Amino acid sequence: MAVFTLGALTTVPVSARPALVAPPVWQAIEALGLQDAVGVVEIDPPQSDTAATQQTYGLDATTLANCVVVAGRREGQERVAACVVLASTRADVNTVVRQRLDVRKSSFLPMERAVEETGMEYGGITPIGLPAAWPVLIDGRVAAAPAVIIGSGIRRSKLIVPGALLAQLPGSEVIEGLAS
Prior knowledge:
This is YbaK/EbsC family protein. By secondary structure, the chain is of the alpha+beta class. It contains six helices and eleven strands.
């Protein structure tokens, strides 16, 4: 059973509180058999933003990970990917992500589209439960982390998962130097 403690946060297995994750996140967790491998903790929604979570719960920035959605076009075709990087870093959207997507220019997906296409709340987007066609690019430091705090698909909770588990999600690719 996944019970993690980071800073002032202690999780319960997501199987004990499935209502604390967005529906597509729960569906993916169930389909992958991760109900007892992923921890969830309820938080105050105004504390959901990374900096607020870090300060409120006494966390090191290297234990928090952000999931951002990036898109670009090539020959009229849009290419979308999710990038998971530590909160202490920034995804290299203009070089590494652009090259991986093989597009001329990449940029963050507009908030409204990201929310609509993921079925998750802004500020809570997580790599678990994203559209299957999207590659999930994971910075090597995230994959190597014993556990990271990520969104749960909603703003009133967070997931704590081993970095190695994120690296094994369908469609995931670990990319060294994805973030700087």
